[in-house]
Amino acid sequence: MAKEKHPTRERILDAAEELFANKGYEGVSVRQIMRQADADVSLAYYHFKSKQDLFDQVMLRRVEYLNSIRLKALEAVEERHPDDAPSVEEIIDAFTHPLLDLLAKEHDEWKYYFQLIAQINNSPEWGGELMTRYFDPLVRRFIDALRKALPDCDEQDLFWSYHFLSGALTLTFAETKRIDNLSGGVCRSSDMASINERMPAFLAAGFKALCSR
Amino acid sequence: MAKEKHPTRERILDAAEELFANKGYEGVSVRQIMRQADADVSLAYYHFKSKQDLFDQVMLRRVEYLNSIRLKALEAVEERHPDDAPSVEEIIDAFTHPLLDLLAKEHDEWKYYFQLIAQINNSPEWGGELMTRYFDPLVRRFIDALRKALPDCDEQDLFWSYHFLSGALTLTFAETKRIDNLSGGVCRSSDMASINERMPAFLAAGFKALCSR
DNA sequence: ATAAAAATTCAACGCTCGTTGAATGGTAGT
DNA sequence: ACTACCATTCAACGAGCGTTGAATTTTTAT
Fold it and tell me: What is the pLDDT of residue B86?
C-alpha cells in the first residue's frame, strides 16, 4: 500500500474523505479516521481545529480545482462559439464532463469526494447550505449560459431543469451499484464512459422539452 | 401539538423517522428519539429489537402502501390503453405522481420518509442494497412498461435513463432548499405542483432522446 | 553544536452511546 | 379478588465519543 509517501496532514484528509464518504459525518469517529491514517488521535487536533474543521478541509481541498476546470470547460465551449450561442448539450457537457473524467480514472483519488458530494446534495440538513456555498458562483455561470442558449425559456423551467440535472448527476457520483443489480450487469455504476455518452443528451433533451412548451 | 393521540410504538416511529431524515442514522441517538417521542429510553427496546430494527421498521411502515399506489397508477394507465402502448410521459407520471401528491399535502406526514429515501438512494454504503430490497419489483414493472413504449430502445440506454430519473426524483424528495436560494425565490423546494408539471415532461424527453439516437 | 519550532506521543477529562435486567404499574379475563 | 399479561420506569453496564494539556521526539535554522 505504501502509505508513508504522504505527509500526515494529507493522510488524515485522505482517511477522513474515504470514511466520511462511506459512513457519513456522524457515522465516523475521529479515532477511526486516525486509525486508518495510522497516526495518533491527538494529531487530528494538532493539524485541525475540530472534527467539523477536518470535514470542512476535506471539502475545501478539492473544490477550487473542481470549479476551475469546469469554468475552463465552459469558457472553451463559449470560445468555440464567438458569434452564436453554444448548444444546450455542449454547455451541459462542459458541466458534467470534467467531473466524470476525474471519476473515470482507474485510481480512487476522486471517488470518495464525489460520493461525499452526493450525500451532501441530498442531505436535508446541510445540503442546501453547503452546495450553495461551494458551487453557487459556478452554477450561476452555467445557468446564464443555458439561458442564452434557451432565450425563450421561462425562469422556473430553467431552474427546475437544473434541479433535475443536479439530481441525476449526483446520484451518478454515489456509485451505489443499484443499477448494476437492476440491469442484471448490463450497466455498471462505475462506467463513467457510458454515462458521459448519455447524460448530456438525456438532460439537454429535458431542458429543451421544458423550455419550449 | 396533541401528541398523546398515538400509541407509543407509533410515536417512536414518528420521532425516529423525522430525526433519521434530518440527521441520518448515525447522527441520531436512541435517547434523542425517545426524548422526542416523550417516552423512556428502554421502551425503544421493548417495542423494537435494536436501533437497526427500529430503522428497518421506519422504512417498512410505509413502503408497502407506497408500492401499491404506484402499481395501481401504472395499471390505470395501462387500462386506458388496451390496444396501444401508453406514452413514455404517462408511464413516468404514474411513477412520480403518487409520490409527489403525498408530499404535496399540507401536513408533514410523508415529508421525512421521503427525505430518508433521498439519503438512502445516495448513500454508497446502503443505497444499492436498501433501494433494491424495497423497490426493485415495482421498478422492474415500470421499466417493462417503458420498454414496450420504446420498443427500439437499447437496454443500456433504458437503464441509464431510469438512473437519471431516479436521481432527479430523489433529489426532489430531499427538499434541501438549494433551488430556493439559487433561483432567488422563483422556485421553492416544497412546491410539488410545479415539479409535477415539469418532471415527467423533462424525463420523458430524456428517455426519448436516448432511445432514438 | 545549539536553540527554536514543528510534529508526535501519552494519559486523561467528562459525556453520551446502545443495550439490558429487574422492579413497577395498568388492564383484561376469570 | 386473583391472575396473567402488556406497558412502562429506573438504574446501571462497559465502551466509545470529541477534545485537551503536558511531555517528548524530530526537524529546521543559525
Answer: 96
Question: Which one-letter DSSP state was computed for residue B29?
Answer: -
Residue A29, CA: closest nucleotide via C1'?
D17
Span A33-90, pLDDT tens digits: 999 999 999 999 999 999 999 999 999 999 999 999 999 999 999 999 999 989 999 9
Q: Which residues of A96-114 are buried (b: 16+ CB within 10 A; e: fewer)?
A: bbbbbebbeeeeeebbbbb
CB contact under 8 A, A182 and B136: yes
* Cα B112 to the center of its chain, rounded Å: 10
- Closest nucleotide to A46's CA, by C1' atom? C7
**Cell output for A212:** 419550449
The Cα-based distances of B159 to A46, A54, A55, B62, B188 in angstroms read 48, 38, 34, 26, 30
pTM: 0.94
Among residues A116, A112, A166, A191, the alpha carbon closest in space to that of B160 is found at: A191
Residue labelled with grid coordinates 425562469:
A155
Q: Which residues contact A6 (CB under 8 A, 6 or more apart)?
A: A14
Per run of 10 residues, the mean pLDDT along chain A (length 213 residues) is: 70 98 97 97 98 98 97 97 94 98 94 97 91 97 97 97 98 97 96 97 98 87
Which residues are CB-contacts of A162 (< 8 A; sequence separation ≥ 6)?
A139, A142, A143, A146, B179, B182
In this structure, the number of other CB atoms found within 10 A of the CB of residue B83 comes to 4
B161 touches chain A (CB under 8 A): yes
Task: Please identify which residue in the block is written with the cell numbers 468555440.
Answer: A80
C-alpha cell recorded at residue B195:
415539479
* The pLDDT of residue B196 is above 50: yes
Whether the CB-CB separation of B198 and A191 falls below 8 Å is answered with no
What domains does chain B contain, in order, with CATH numbers?
Answer: 1-48 (1.10.10.60), 62-211 (1.10.357.10)
